[in-house]
Every structure is written in structure tokens, then in C-alpha cells.
Design brief:
The protein has 459 residues and is α/β, with parallel strands linked by helices. The protein has 14 helices and 20 strands. It has 2 domains: 129 residues, Sandwich (Immunoglobulin-like), CATH 2.60.40; 308 residues, Alpha-Beta Barrel (TIM Barrel). The strands form 4 sheets. It has an 8-stranded parallel beta barrel with strand order 1-2-3-4-5-6-8-9, surrounded by 6 helices. The two termini are 20 Å apart. The chain binds (3S,4R)-3-hydroxy-2-oxopiperidin-4-yl beta-D-xylopyranoside.
């Protein structure tokens, strides 16, 4: 289908020039954000090529706009940051609120993503009626069984993995004295796994904790528990290492630790990765953070049974760190404005990606796509073809729209769109791009929902 031609057919030349000039004024800023996204394949694709699922914790109400675009396109797994905790789903005994959890599951299904359920048995974020009730052990055990059966049953078949038990240990490797342990003893752990397995036999069931990333007293205790649960035939499938880390302090024994759990016959996931720094951030800290993220992801990539790396919020503006560790922040791969930080590229590099600039696609000529203006249903875009160390004589730029965008008009190129694929060939007067020179063409299009920047191929 031919949607537009060279502009002379329908637009006066002066109008075209004005349109180009108006667009040019806003190009630079948008170009910077656009090329950062377009440079690497999404993290989920890089991860898939290495057999790894790449996830993020999310807040259901934020899953629109840029936040939704990034969550949906970069990640292959979502963990509800709070929405599936007991206090969220049953704030009053017997009265359930699944709204946010359902929303996240639906979003994940629409974006071909896994969901990690988080979390069934924990000492935090429980409803007051539960923590303040003076339950007998038998009552507490029944409440826990019902909770697990209800929640796991509701999402049966929709959750790839559950964090069944969260943070069961203290730092010295003794059991944490929680309402569960104090009333039920350590047997609550095996029971929780057994009940979760009965409710969804296909979900992978994890025990999850923090400060267990390296080999230490706490991870030794976790290791011994997992070994013993396996020996008893308790249905445990995996170990989650939360990985709330501090800048420059990735444990040197991380990979060794992942490997020893894998050798027990369970999967391992990095479930809540963030790497906090003392604020303010500066370029040296951000560079160190990129190296730290890279080394964590590389440690997982090196162990076959390490199956998932999930960041605990992908943007600094969505992170729990500043509220929990005063003076610390900037702990995620995207900044407050959803632009990728060096940490993003550190993750990409560990997964085999990592060039921040698109490689030349035709000798040393490159094409860069940018949205120069955008309104509720329409946008103006442009593609700039630049040559250095090479030249072009006749060119063709093509791309695939990822979100149903449709070109309605183009200038300084002959563009056709077939399905999602757009191909633009030079106009009679701009086929030559000299060494050291550039040619720019523009277009108007329609969009709906999101307007992600595609990667342009030059040929
Ligand atoms: C955090 C959430 O991110 C915050 O929004 C909430 O206020 C507190 O809990 N370990 C866990 C997560 O297992 O559930 C916690 O999430 C962070 C620490």
C-alpha cells in the first residue's frame, strides 16, 4: 500500500520547509532518548538468547505511558512489588482485594511475560487482623494454609514461580523469630511448600532471602535447609537471592554460591536486584554501578540453573531504596526520567549486548530515527542518514513499527508502508549522501497507546 509520495504531489514546498524547521528545533533532546532505546535489543531478547528471563518488580497503577512501555518491552517477567502480599490482598479478614495483582497478571499475559508471585509467607506487610490476632498454633496454621491455597489457587496456571517463604533467617543463620516460627516452629516452611504445590503443581516454588548472595553464615543456613527439604521430598524448586546490594560490594563468592545451590538440584533466581549508592550520584559512581550490575548478571549467566534476573523496580523514581535507606538511592538501571543509565548497559553487556551506538549498517553510513513532535493521535518523525568514511548513491531506509503506528505522509523520501513495515527510498534529488554529509527526510504518522522508536536498517 502506498501511503505517501514525494511532497511535491500534495504539499507546497514552503510548507514542507516550515514543517522540517519546526521539527528540527525539538529533535536533539528526543534523539538522545530515542537512540539509547534503539541501540541494543531489549534486555528480554538478550536474556532469551542466553536462556535467562529478565524481570522487574512493578506497581500496577503505573503500567501505562513510558513506564508501561519499558516494563512491557524490556522485561520478560514481572514481580508485583507489593500487590500480592498478604496485607494487600486481604486487608480485612475474609475480604479480598485482587485488583492490582489481577492487573499485573493481565499486563504480563498481554506482553508475553512470566509472573513471579511474591510472597506467601513473610513477617512483613501482613494485615493487622493477622498480626494482632491472638491465634493458637492450630488456628495460625489453618490461616496460613487457607491463605496459600486461596492465593495460589486463584492464579493457578498464571504464575511461573512463587516466592513461597520470604526472609526466614537472621544474619547469623538462625531462624528469624517471626509470628510463624514462634508459633509453628521451622515446620511452617515445609508445610507452606506442600500447600503451595497442592494449589498449583506447575508453579516453581522458591525460598527467598537477602544477604544470602555470597557464601556466609546466612546463606550456609539457607543451603542446609534447602538440602534437607530436598532430602525430605518437600516440593521446593528454587532459591531466590534478593540482591539488594551496595555500590562496590558485589560479593566475590556470588557465582560460587549460585553454583552450590544449583548443584543441590534447584533453580536459582536473582529476585530483587538493586545496587544503591550514597547520594548524590556522580559519573564515577554510575560507572561503578554499571560494572556491579554487569558482574551480578554475568554470575547468573555463567550458571545454567540461574534462570531469572529481576530488578526491584527498573527506574530510580520507582525504587524503594530512598525511602528505606536514607541518603541512598539511584539504585536501578533507569534514571528518574526513564532514560537508561550506565547500569542498563552493564546488564546488556553481561547478556552479550552492549553497544550504545548502533553499528554502521551500510559501510560507515548510519540512520537515526527520532520523533520530533507528538500529539494525542499523531506525530512527526524524521530519519537522518549520515555518512563518515563512506558515501551513498541511492538509499533505502526501512523499519518495523512496534505498536501499530501508521505513516500518513512523507517528505524528502518516497515511503510505503505494508503492515508494520515501512520502506523509504530517496527522492530524485537527495539520493547522494557524501562522505561527511547527511540527508534527512520526514514524515507524519498516527499512533495509539505508545509510540516506541524503531531501529532503522539502511540498505
Ligand atoms: C518492598 C517494596 O518495594 C516497598 O514498596 C514496600 O514498602 C516494602 O517492601 N524484600 C522483599 C520485598 O522481599 O518485598 C520488599 O519490597 C523489599 C525487601
Amino acid at each position: 500500500m502506498r501511503t505517501s509520495t514525494t511532497p511535491s504531489a500534495r504539499t507546497p514546498f514552503a510548507t514542507r520547509l516550515a514543517a522540517l524547521a519546526a521539527g528540527a528545533a525539538t529533535t536533539l533532546a528526543l534523539l538522545a532518548a530515542g537512540t539509547a532505546h534503539a541501540a541494543d535489543p531489549p534486555l528480554r531478547d538478550l536474556g532469551a538468547a542466553k536462556g535467562k528471563v529478565i524481570g522487574t518488580a512493578v506497581t500496577g497503577s503505573k503500567l501505562t505511558g513510558t513506564y508501561g512501555d519499558i516494563a512491557g518491552s524490556q522485561f520478560s517477567s514481572l514481580t508485583p512489588g507489593n500487590a500480592m502480599k498478604w496485607g494487600s490482598v486481604e486487608p480485612t479478614q475474609g475480604s479480598f482485594d485482587w485488583t492490582e495483582a489481577d492487573q499485573i497478571v493481565a499486563f504480563a499475559q498481554a506482553h508475553n511475560q512470566q509472573v513471579r508471585g511474591h510472597t506467601l509467607v513473610w513477617h512483613n506487610q501482613n494485615p493487622n487482623w493477622l498480626t494482632n490476632g491472638n491465634w493458637t498454633s492450630a488456628q495460625l496454621s489453618t490461616l496460613l494454609q487457607n491463605h496459600i491455597s486461596t492465593e495460589v489457587g486463584r492464579y493457578k496456571g498464571k504464575i511461573a514461580a512463587w516466592d513461597v517463604v520470604n526472609e526466614a533467617f537472621d544474619e547469623d543463620g538462625t531462624y528469624r523469630p517471626t509470628l510463624w516460627y514462634n508459633s509453628l516452629g521451622s515446620g511452617y516452611i515445609a508445610n507452606a511448600f506442600t500447600w503451595a504445590h497442592a494449589a498449583d503443581p506447575n508453579a516453581k516454588l522458591y525460598i527467598n532471602d537477602y544477604n544470602v548472595e555470597g557464601v556466609n553464615a546466612k546463606s550456609n543456613a539457607l543451603y542446609n535447609l534447602v538440602k534437607s527439604l530436598k532430602q525430605q521430598g518437600v516440593p521446593i524448586d528454587g532459591v531466590g537471592l534478593q540482591a539488594h546490594l551496595v555500590l562496590g560490594q558485589v560479593p566475590s563468592t556470588l557465582q560460587q554460591n549460585i553454583q552450590r545451590f544449583a548443584d543441590l538440584g534447584v533453580d536459582v533466581a536473582i529476585t530483587e536486584l538493586d545496587i544503591r549508592m550514597a547520594l548524590p550520584a556522580d559519573s564515577a559512581k554510575l560507572t561503578q554501578q554499571a560494572a556491579d550490575f554487569k558482574s551480578v548478571v554475568a554470575a547468573c549467566a555463567a550458571v545454567t540453573r540461574c534462570v531469572n534476573v529481576t530488578v526491584w523496580g527498573f527506574a530510580d523514581s520507582d525504587s524503594w531504596v530512598p525511602g528505606t535507606f536514607p541518603g541512598y538511592g539511584a539504585a536501578t538501571p533507569y534514571d528518574d526520567n526513564y532514560s537508561p543509565k550506565p547500569a542498563y548497559h552493564g546488564i546488556a553487556e553481561a547478556l552479550g549486548g552492549g553497544s550504545t551506538t548502533p553499528p554502521p549498517t551500510n559501510g560507515a553510513c548510519t540512520a537515526t530515527y527520532s520523533v520530533t513532535s507528538q500529539w494525542n493521535t499523531g506525530f512527526t518523525g524524521q530519519v537522518k542518514i549520515s555518512c563518515a568514511g563512506a558515501s551513498l548513491s541511492g538509499w533505502r531506509a526501512s523499519w518495523t513499527f512496534g505498536a501499530g503506528q501508521q505513516i500518513t505522509q512523507a517528505w524528502n523520501a518516497d515511503c510505503t508502508q505494508s503492515g508494520a513495515t515501512v520502506t523509504c527510498a530517496n527522492a530524485p534529488y537527495n539520493g547522494t549522501v557524501p562522505d561527511g554529509g547527511s540527508v534527512t527526510f520526514g514524515f507524519n504518522g498516527s499512533w495509539n497507546g505508545s509510540n516506541p522508536v524503531p531501529l532503522v536498517t539502511l540498505g
